[in-house]
Amino acid sequence: LAFKESNSPTDSYAAISQVDRLQSEPESIRKWREEQKERLEQLDANSRKQEAEWKEKAIKELEEWYARQDEKLQKTKVSNRAAEEAFVNDAEDIFPGTEWERVAQLCDFNPKSSKQAKDVSRMRSVLISLKQAPLVR
Question: Composition bias, kind Polar residues: at what positions (predicted)?
Answer without folding.
Answer: 1-11
